[in-house]
Amino acid sequence: MVLELSACTGVQSALNPAADDAARLARLSAVLFVGAGVIFFGVSALLLHAIYARPERRRWLGRRQAVVAGGLVFPIVTLTALLVYGFGVLRLTNIPADNGSLRIEVVGEQYWWRVRYLPEAAEAAFTTANELQVPIGRRIELIVTSADVIHAIWIPNFAGKVDMIPGRVTRLTFIAEKPGVYRGQCTEFCGDQHARMAFDVVALEPAAFDAWRRQQAEKAQEPATDFLERGRTLFFRNGCGNCHAVRGTEAKGQLGPDLTHVGSRRSIGAAQFPNNVGTLAGWIADTQHLKRGARMPSFGSLSGEDLRALAGYVASLR
Length: 318
Ligand SMILES: [Cu+2]
Fold this sequence. Notes:
Layout: H1 2-6, H2 20-52, H3 55-58, H4 64-92, E1 102-109, E2 112-117, E3 126-129, E4 131-135, E5 139-146, E6 151-154, E7 162-164, E8 170-175, E9 180-186, E10 198-204, H5 206-217, H6 226-237, E11 267-268, E12 273-274, H7 277-290, H8 304-316
Parallel strand pairs: 1-5, 4-10
Antiparallel strand pairs: 1-2, 2-3, 5-8, 6-7, 6-9, 9-10, 11-12
The structure holds copper (II) ion.
Copper (II) ion is lined by residues 108, 111, 151, 186, 190, 194, 197.
């Protein structure tokens, strides 16, 4: 029981709200749960009374007034009140973004997330993947769509779910309130690796966010050693650049995640594995074992030394 309850707080939990919308939805759920509980116990008590009380004491239950009050008036009043309250919550949830909102495009792909920060005043646009970093205290507008099949984006600690539909643009807005690391997940079955389509969400103080954004907008780092230089050569020789973009190099592929700053991300494979040279090497050598059906082939024929250099280069893209 304790274990089950502890699962309710955490990086991917609607019961642990860290944004305005999630807090509203959690409150709505609490009202519904508590209300349903009270009614359930009330009805159960009446039922027991009807079964076990002496006949003369339970006769009132059969009266017309009791039936009208309990069976008609009570449900109409309660359900109407809940409906009005629910509409009130709805009106305040996922409200349209204003001019001061931070706009981020998120595209669902089988089985990862393309994330594009739109240009803003002096800040340049850039593309990243599988990670959403947002400042706290400012309205965020996610402009979402899909590149292939229907996906759905859900960051339980922040807001409700929104479908990602090919050819259509939907929106999701919220204001993150607590700095921290959270997790989002695809919640519309989209293929065999649907369950492994997640992403990291990081809420930062505004100054830390600005620093992160400026760093992400820059071109990729040059290899610092001969070994990493060799890794970069292998990156091109193996055709990684046909699917992946590394800004500042001739790698301009668009089929897979942008790798310009992949080394700075918390995880790889759409929030499936911690990000380090070891997991990167494993991912490159055996993608189809780690995530069968992902749109990247395994590169199983690289020598150990080459794999180390290649993974080292990818990890150095910070
Ligand atoms: Cu999906």
